[in-house]
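Researcher: We're teaching a course module on how sequence relates to structure. For the next exercise, students receive a sequence and then see the predicted structure as tokens, so they can try to spot secondary structure elements on their own. Here is the exercise chain.
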Amino acid sequence: MPPVADPSASASPQPASTPPAMPTSPWALPIFRAVWLASMASNFGGLIQSVGASWMMTSLDASPQMIALVQASTTLPIMLLSLWAGAVADNLDRRWVMLSAQGFMLTVSIVLAACAWGGVLTPWLLLGFTFLIGCGTAINNPAWQASVGDMVPRSVLPTAVALNSMGFNIARSLGPAIGGVIVGAFGAAAAFLTNAFSYLALIVVLARWRPALPPRLLPREKLGMAMEAGLRYVALSPGIRRVLFRAAVFGLAASAVPALMPLVARDLVGGGPFVYGLLLGAFGVGAVGGALSSTRLRQRLSAEWIVRIASVGLGLGAAGAALSPALLLTLPCLALAGAGWVLALSTFNVTVQISAPRWVVARALALYQMAAFGGMAAGSWIFGGLAGDHGVATALLAAAAVQIGGGVLGFLLPVPRMQMLDLDPLGRFQEPETAVPVEPRTGPVVVTIEYRIAPERVVEFLHVMTERRRIRRRDGAKHWTLLRDLGEPDLWIERYHVATWLDYVRHNQRRTKADVDNSDAIQALHSGPERPRVHRMIERQTSTLPWSRHVDPGELPDALTDPTRST
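Model: And here is the predicted structure for the students to work with:
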């Protein structure tokens, strides 16, 4: 092999290349602009379809509960499928996941339009179609939300999420009114067909996008294991857990406003599909205002205060719509509710995104959406039933009371502050050489780490190891224990299990730069002359053969003689 030249020995050293300037806005990135515009077109179609479905249900079945179920049938799949979809998005090419979901929704929308034009729709068949479109949305959303981090750098991620919310709500401002015109002039079938065409721009943009992703160094997780890993990560992340609970409470009460809006238009205001479109448009205008103000609010207020203000604003808007005697008073009330809606949901979304590393971000977002949209599905059912029994105004007032109570809940379970944690891989781990040959499936693996801790530092060590236990378990370790040697009081042993050698490698590669303080603190407390000693062992079962005679190695089971075999 020819010698490799040493760049440092060059007679005329080359100047260091200047790293590219970090964009200060997502608008500076062409892919974000293209996807944003295409997504807004798709959002227009979705909202036009929503107007058509809700208004068609009023003509098929006047029951308030059936009308409210139109929204529930769209949000329920998000609760049921999001975790699976998040695991798919974290393990497969997110671009292809989104393309598949968009193609599925395009097909369903075309069939729905054909059935509407053929006059064969029934209330339950309409709910079935909206449920299928909701399934497509459930599959698309985790991949789409996680892909935002593939399009923009982390420094502008909160702005990108807010802009996506703004784009959706610009569509919400105009789409419902346009939908009302289309339904009034051409019927609901035309609204469904318009939605079908709206998917095409996003499909084209996604098909042309070639994201620069880091190479995948490890095999993909099985979907069941990936779902378990996502649940475990969120369960052992206290900040994300609080966000999920607050999002569920918020969604439960917030769902009443859009779910009952057709009844507000028909019963409280006395209008038709065009008035319903105006009400949705007012809600959307308020949401755009909320999105535009979100960046400034984040600079001045904590995430918790933004959510409190949003909850109170949405509650007051719902109460005002319930008590308003005229359309001109109802419109600003719904605009206030729309502002609260987007401020709270975008704050929840950003908090989850910046609290989860890339390997699990789609699953964390999926669980957030399960919580929020599960609350919305339940709320649509509950407040729809309440409207049927006691009237629309009573249902809106009850939802307003629950929403304001959710804001007060923040004093007990506050949303964590938005900290820009460095969740890139720590990169310190190198797969060790082993004297016994191993394969990815070799296991179970037992790991022990020996520390020498001075007696006066034991309390501090136990405190640091409490956080180590959470990090280990969050990243996949099982049966974590901390042991103290009775013969050598300064010897402490950390012990944990993983199922296979591949799981051991994956577990250690999940450590992030945000965890480095814990690792460094443990290293600083260790007082031995060398670094903490690590033992990696394969757990093996003893033979059940009688040992009263000599056993030839050839008679032993393969699992005892082949170290690469799992037991």
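Model: If you want an answer key for the exercise: The first helix runs from residue 30 to 60. Confidence is low (pLDDT under 50) at residues 1-19, 563-567.
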